[in-house]
Design goal:
Elements lengths: L14 E3 L4 E6 L5 E7 L31 E4 L23 E5 L2 E6 L6 E10 L2 E10 L9 E5 L1 E2 L5 E8 L1 E8 L2 E3 L12 E5 L6 E7 L6 E6 L2 E6 L7 E8 L8 E9 L5 H4 L11 E12 L1 H12 L1
Antiparallel strand pairs: 1-2, 2-3, 4-9, 5-6, 6-7, 7-8, 8-20, 9-19, 10-19, 11-14, 11-16, 12-13, 12-15, 15-18, 16-17, 17-20, 18-19
Length: 310
């Protein structure tokens, strides 16, 4: 896997923090995209590299026609609405953010015009931990229907694994084979059986978006070689968790991604996710957090998973 950092053109800005072992970089002008995440200067670059040159999206442009890389946020929706009023992946990745960098924190916010909300994210590094705080405020005059997903695309291949502290019970949202819609995900989990260890050896040419059914595991981690990236689900405050696997099954360019997706709303389609979420009233605010840990070594990961089940 590449250890090269994606280069961000000057007009989009580049901020970073490396106060401890974690090195994080983000580009406020690219919709607050985090472009690099690694453990130590010689560590693996976790985030998927761009498949096209970084550029600002045109109004209404499809996410899949751009760089398809890094860590974005999906809000106030994940999938597109049938009427086109809500574009795929939402608003906030399309617009430049206001941002500031401190020794251990990268902060950014955005207020999309005419949408009636303000969204903010603080990424704090603490040793090998990322503590990611989110805030959403309704600054409009009407209730705000909303859903959210952390869209962190990790570089993946057939050696990548997804492991958990307790069995993952998966429900299919959508699946693709060589670019065409397909059904089922036996290539990933035979018979859709609950599992604590998902391998990608049979995933070439496939893609699927899945949702973990409750109860969610306390820890879910992506493993590649000796390094791992773990979501401390039990220490976070989001209710839903998605999983995206794509080894060339979706996209008009070869994409090889895995994403563990903390979320509000366990469906991609807004018409399916919104009914299960309370709208945010005028003047109301909502805050939540996601805790992620980067580490190395099988023994350390085993200890983390075992402690989560104790």
């Amino acid at each position: 896997m590449s250890r090269e950092r994606a280069q961000v053109p000057g007009p989009f800005g580049a901020l970073g923090t490396c106060a401890g072992p974690l090195d994080v970089r983000f580009a406020p002008g690219l919709g607050g995209k985090v472009t690099s995440l690694r453990l130590g200067a010689g560590g693996r670059e976790w985030l998927a590299p761009p498949v096209r040159t970084f550029r600002a999206p045109a109004p209404g442009q499809d996410w899949g026609k751009l760089d398809c890389s890094g860590w974005d946020e999906c809000l106030p929706n994940i999938g597109a609405s049938p009427d086109g009023g809500l574009a795929d992946h939402g608003d906030v990745w399309r617009l430049p953010w206001q941002a500031r960098a401190e020794p251990t924190t990268l902060s950014g916010s955005v207020e999309p015009p005419l949408r009636g909300y303000r969204f903010a994210r603080d990424i704090e590094t603490d040793g090998g931990l990322l503590r990611v705080g989110y805030r959403l405020e309704n600054v409009g005059e009407r209730p705000l229907a909303w859903a959210w997903a952390q869209h962190m695309l990790l570089a993946a291949d057939e050696r990548t694994r997804i492991v958990s502290s307790s069995p993952m019970r998966l429900r299919l949202d959508s699946a693709y084979l060589a670019g065409a819609v397909s059904g089922g995900f036996d290539w990933l989990c035979p018979d859709a059986a609950p599992t604590t260890d998902i391998g990608l050896r049979g995933a070439a040419g496939h893609a699927a978006k899945l949702w973990l059914e409750p109860p969610l595991p306390a820890v879910v981690a992506v493993v590649h070689g000796d390094e791992w990236l773990a979501w401390h689900v039990a220490d976070s405050s989001f209710p839903d968790l998605g999983l995206w696997v794509n080894l060339g099954g979706w996209g008009d360019l070869p994409l090889r991604h895995v994403a563990v997706e903390p979320a509000f709303g366990a469906r991609d389609a807004p018409l399916e996710s919104y009914p299960g979420l309370a709208p945010l009233g005028p003047g109301e605010r909502r805050s939540w957090r996601a805790v992620i840990e980067a580490g190395a070594g099988a023994a350390a990961l085993d200890q983390l998973l075992s402690a989560a089940t104790g």
